Amino acid sequence: xxxGGDARDMGFCRDYDLPVFQAKGxxxxxxxxxxxxxxxxxxxxxxxxxxxxxxPHYNAIVMAGMDEHRIKVRNNHIGLxxxxxxxxxxxxxxxxxxxxxDDLGYGDSAIFDPNGxxxxxxxxxxxxxxxxxxxxxxxxxxxxxxxxxxxxRVRSQLAETLQTYRRTDPTRAPSGEDYGGRR
Length: 183
Fold this sequence. Notes:
By secondary structure, the protein is α+β, with helices and mostly antiparallel strands. The protein has one domain: 4-Layer Sandwich (Nitrilase/N-carbamoyl-D-aminoacid amidohydrolase), CATH 3.60.110. Helix content is 30%, strand content 19%. The chain has helices at residues 4-8, 39-47, 63-84, 136-141, 152-164; strands spanning 21-23, 26-30, 52-56, 61-62, 87-91, 94-96, 103-106, 110-112, 118-121. Strands 1-2-3-5-8-9 form a six-stranded mixed beta sheet, covered by helices on one side. It starts with a helix and ends in a 19-residue tail after the last helix.
């Protein structure tokens, strides 16, 4: 789910594969930055059995829109954790003037449990290693979007829709202004 700047200015390419991985008895997946603004990438990972979703970010936001953006993105992660019944591990850069003199990378890295509760946090503008013990059984039975109860027809329809999704106006790439400020 690249922003216009990601695709146009930075030359990143779109890849719609959403694989899950396993390590130490845990299934996890990864969404990156702007992906957390949409439920579908995380939902697809959860339906594939992900119990933990990693969400790295590189938010360098102009100061005027920084706090509004931070709150929205944080709430997106809380919502994904609670809705999908997964742990969400959010990491974000800290910095000042990384792209322009007046932008901030505000940090706010956190780990949210399947109820959307922060169980580890670095805080704003703090570089820290945060850790949390994750019980795979908690993620497997939590959340309102119970993966084991999703009807096969709905699961198939979701998969088909995601595979054939195309932007309604493919000539218009989203810009930073579409997301509350320059990214």
